[in-house]
Amino acid sequence: xxxxxxxxxxxxxxxxxxxxxxxxxxxxxxxxxxxxxxxxxxxxxxxxxxxxxxxxxxxxxxxxxxxxxxxxxxxxxxxxxxxxxxxxxxxxxxxxxxxxxxxxxxxxxxxxxxxxxxxxxxxxxxxxxxxxxxxxxxxxxxxxxxxxxxxxxxxxxxxxxxxxxxxxxxxxx
Length: 173
What we know:
Low-confidence stretches: none
Strand content: under 5%
Helix content: over 70%
Number of helices: 8
Mean pLDDT: 87
Largest sheet: none
């Protein structure tokens, strides 16, 4: 399929999402939250579960996890660990194991293999990744809700205005 056509298809699917602006923005921000967590193979499952719990859009929650992608996994994991290790006072304690994990991410190893390496590195390593990921997730999710609420409200307004114009055209004919 031609790239321009594919982009248009997904654009149209995005602006036609069903639900109120709050529900859509909440779902997307929960997806951003889960996407920022260093739990690569489980991000979508977490996002959808959170959307069920908080009554957000499940579809936009799944879409929001795309903030985490192969282009930025290395940086997300790197800063998750560094932030968590700093907060927990564990800086410099996992040098070799951390380097091994980052090499695995950089070379594109499977998500489950990376998760196994992190888990086998011990509880303090896991705590560092999760603490840093949680901090980064909160920092990214809160503003994303308000930005996306603004976007979805504008899409709704645009859609309603367009519909009203179309209704008036039909009356004129």
